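Record 1 of the preview.
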Amino acid sequence: MIPTDNDIQNFMLAETEAAKFVVTPNGNGREGTDYILKTEKGNLYNLYLCSINLDIERDIKIPKHTLGDLKDDLWIALVVLLKETPTILYLIPSRIFETPDNRIFFDNEITVMPNLSNWHIKVFTNAIKELSQYEIQNIKDKL
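->
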């Protein structure tokens, strides 16, 4: 069964709650920001929620016009699903795209059609180990 958007949202909320974060829907209407995350230290972060089902696809593209400007307080909440393995939540700083590694993170600038420009994340076997630094359990103390 393919998870619904509601399933993805509920998973993200459960994981952030387990990490002792308070997450609320973004009510200010800023495009690209779905949620506001508040840490135990009182720090606030904007979250853009997206998911990738590795049984179907290996990458995700986030339109630049949707995400907006890259900022220290803007993070990508990426839910990764794969049949018969635990679902994982990664919290990835948007600033990673300022100097993408062109291996996992890419900046696809399309000058002739800027509305098609996107930030691109590829997920593959060897990338999982590198992405693990962004797993919520591994990054929660840095927020």
